[in-house]
Amino acid sequence: MEFQLWGAKIVIEPKPDLRYLYLEITNRCNLKCEMCFKQYWEDKEGDMDWDLFLKILDDAKEFPELKMIYFGGIGEPSVHPRFMDMVREVKRRGFRLGMSTNGVLLEDKILEEFVKLGVDVVYFSMDAIPTPSNIVTLGHITSKVVESRIKKLVELKKRYKTEKPTIGVEVVATKENYKQLPEMAIYLRNLGVDSMLISNLIPMTKEHSKAIVYDGSVDMTPIVNELHQIAEGGPFMRIAEFKLRTNRYCDFIENNVTVVRWDGEVFPCYRFLHTYPEVIFGREKKVIAHSFGNVKEKSLKDIWMSEEYVRFRFLVKASAYPSCIDCPLNTSCSFALDTTQDCWGTSPSCGDCLWSRGIVLCPIPFEYMGKFL
């Protein structure tokens, strides 16, 4: 495969080197969190068809380096009517399995089956330490539920004498909770959590942007230093950047990840999975979903090795795209209004991506101290 870049000839030999297959088995959710993508996107809701799911698992056999299938995306996987059938089928076929969940629907019998089946990673969402039951805000209620799920899972792992699943917790740092992060890390350690991921908020509105802590309004240095000290005794931590940095690194591209949406469309990352508004350092932008094909029409291998998708991955890995975030023209440039294309001709545009700057992180199983590398 050959293409031109800045007068140079680029030659790439496409390989079936997919390592992490993310499946958005549903984009529905049992919660309605104010700052979630789902409250602002333009997409319809749906569940992955069972036959499509089986077809994707069949396609996954063509990737000899595949390390894990991960139920993620934007939605709560456990609301899928055949969620546990999907869990069983992935493990029956011998794949490693991870998932992100709010935990609310994971009753004790489900957690026990996770342990018996050998589910590899369960990542819970939690943004606050649970408070007394008279506090009735949604965040504190769900945190209390997650606490009970984690305690049960730790108990079951001890009972069955297994280290699986690895338990992770994802926290989104905001002005409301950032001072509590060190205390929360110790709290999670005491619960038996293996990994803590601290990410940042992507505002959907200018009102939301008032809550971010990576715009210089908050000095996060002492908080981060304290977190690093705590991490020496566990849990393992991945901590986002809290200021804009020059280096660009895409976890999805560097770790050979692809994301299949509930309807079969194939995406390079979470950012392009749906169409929604975002606010980047006070500037409004529209993210437009960008698929490289549909597994209903082609094999996943053919999509992964297609010229368009291979070229895109190369350009992102080489950071061969403009930095719109700190460009002095970004308030007047038409390319900065959405992600259709950037001023260097790359489509879709990654120039404003907060993931590539390390400001936003997502659970990727490679982080577990080498367990899945």
Automatic annotation (TrEMBL):
Pinpoint the Radical SAM core domain residues: 15-235
Cofactor(s) the protein requires to work: [4Fe-4S] cluster
Keywords, ordered alphabetically: 4Fe-4S, Iron, Iron-sulfur, Metal-binding, S-adenosyl-L-methionine
Query: What Gene3D superfamilies does this protein's entry cite?
Result: Aldolase class I (3.20.20.70)
Which segment of the chain is annotated as a signal peptide?
A: none
MF term (GO), any:
catalytic activity
| UniProt xrefs under CDD domains | Radical_SAM, SPASM_Cmo-like
Cross-referenced Pfam families: Radical_SAM, SPASM
NCBIfam families, alphabetically? Answer: W_rSAM_matur
PANTHER family listed in its UniProt record: RADICAL SAM DOMAIN PROTEIN, TUNGSTEN-CONTAINING ALDEHYDE FERREDOXIN OXIDOREDUCTASE COFACTOR MODIFYING PROTEIN
Q: What is this protein called?
A: Tungsten cofactor oxidoreductase radical SAM maturase
